[in-house]
Amino acid sequence: MQYPARITVIVCSLGRPECLAYLWQRLQIQTRPAHRVIVAVPSFEDVPSAWAGLAEEADLPRPEVAISAKGLPRQRNVGLERALDDSDIIVFFDDDYVPSVHALEGIEKLFAAYDEVTGITGKLLADGINGPGIESEAAAQLVDDWEAGAGAALRAEPPRVLESRRGLYGCNMAFRVSAIGDVRFDERLPLYGWQEDIDFGARVPGKKFTTDALVGVHCGMKRGREKRGELLGYSQIANPIYLWRKGSMRPRFAMKLCLRNFLSNHMKALKPEPWVDRRGRLRGNWRAIGDLIRGNADPENILRLP
User: Looking at domain 7-218, what is its CATH homologous superfamily?
Assistant: First the structure.
């Protein structure tokens, strides 16, 4: 891989143009600009209206909008197909991820320092996925405070790998294009594609690591109360079993995921969080268990749930 590398950022989104607008702001102030930024969405209504009037700038990429069928694996694959022939490193950021201003610089330095590394996920300063979520401005303050303190000291040292990984965390992960080959996200994991990141990372050959060369906050944004918890509840059981049988998830980890979510949904169903449909998730868990017993559990069954 030649340096400076061509780094393409792929962001998938649905119905959250305000998140895309904020992430775009963070990408514009990177110390090392992206080669391309590709936003994969089901329709132009999913992107900020202001993007239609963006002027071309000499030293900053313009976001490319790629229209895709709805579903995170499908949208990620659409972004991949656009990027593979014109990129050395592909970075996936969730639309509600807030990266440090040195994120892309750190990614490039890490891959340059470790030839054997093919995929990385970054250090999260906070993750709002299991809570009510973190506002973008608060997330940016966390990141910027870290940059001014611990981050400044780390940037004076060579980039570090912290922990070996089999799969990566999809809110922030990066891969060498040369390692991706014909690996694609599994579109049999529909809609939000729960665990599609673990599956994709496990199938990309080579060594994968967590690193603090890439740092940010995953906001875990919510829009009111979860309305169809049954869909996620089904996926919490069916998807890990499917990936175990496929060979991209270890049996012990798959069972851990299933059991952890099953127990959590039961324990919290009597007093659920305001933003979680725990009873819906419970129904989905039990529906998936029933399908497993009958031998017809399949991640795509959520597309047929009433």
Answer: Spore Coat Polysaccharide Biosynthesis Protein SpsA; Chain A (3.90.550.10)
Pick from 158, 174, 264, 165: nearest CA to 214: 174
Instruction: Write the pLDDT tens digit of every residue in 149-190.
Output: 988 888 889 999 999 999 999 999 999 999 999 999 999 999
Give the chain's length. 306
| Structural domain spans, the chain | 7-218, 229-304
Instruction: Return the DSSP state at 295.
Output: T
What's the DSSP call for residue 36? E
How far, in Å, CA of 183 to CA of 134, rounded?
33
pLDDT in tens, 94-123: 999 999 999 999 999 999 999 999 999 999
Nearest to 165 by CA among 175, 154, 157: 175
Model confidence, pTM: 0.94
CA distances 58 to 108, 119, 186, Å, are: 21, 30, 37
Report the distance separating Cα 48 and Cα 19, nearest Å: 9
